[in-house]
Amino acid sequence: MNVLDHISPSDPIVILTGAGISKESGLATFRDPDGIWAKHKIEDVATPEAFARDPDAVLGFYSVRRAQMKDAGVEPNDAHRALGELEGFWPGGVLLVTQNIDDLHARGGSKNLIHMHGELAKTRCNDCGDLIDGLGDLDKNMTCANCQAVGTLRPHVVWFGEMPLQMDAILRALSDCGLFISIGTSGNVYPAAGFVQEARAHGASTIELNLEESLGASSFDEGRYGPATEVVTGFVAELKARAVQ
Ligand code: APR
After folding, report:
1. E strand or H helix at 139, and its extent?
2. Which of 185, 196, 236 most suits a substitution to test ligand 1, by most atoms within 8 Å of the C-beta?
3. How far apart are the first and last CA of the chain?
């Protein structure tokens, strides 16, 4: 099925992105053979228990990711930029929900953006919840400027076992959208992996744009497979033509 035959320009669009969209910007995915989880154990670097047990290991892991954000070679690619443009021309409105903690969507022009797994470029105090901007390295001896606690500063990212952010707003948008687009995500991690079912249950058309079929591929009305810079830009160009019909 071609989802474009089933939507109208007044339909709101919800987009979910994952690590695959940033791959061509030079950032590794998680579960591909050369991915981050092939080199690190989740339970060592991405859980509240790991932070309590070995803060140096956890903060060091995120310092490397933060340094990549400052690397001049890591820039938004054509897929990020196409989604920024889509928000500008689609009459029904676009909400972009990303699992990515990088800042490439914002730099690619997206404004209506939810970082459901948090943001590398923010630091949070585990005690008082104070949020500050910045990509500097954190260490376990730092003091929170707001509550003066020591050793509580952590990257503002959602670890395994923690609740994703802004779920109410996301679920509301999924129940109202006419088109749900999933891009560059393997479908391993919930609740994001269940968004396609949620959108479908409320009558949306659904499409997956990914390098290969994800775990949930059979749940989508349509799938297009290839690198994001090709399949996303191609699909957004078709949406642009549809927007003026
Ligand atoms: N273009 C499009 N898709 C790609 C590309 C590319 N150039 N390269 C890889 N992919 C696809 C892979 O085929 C895979 O299906 O992107 C997907 C990446 O999957 P994961 O590595 O599992 O990343 P993601 O789905 O974002 O992970 C979800 O798990 O541990 C975490 O919290 C982390 O937010 C992350 C969550």
Report:
1. none
2. 185
3. 19
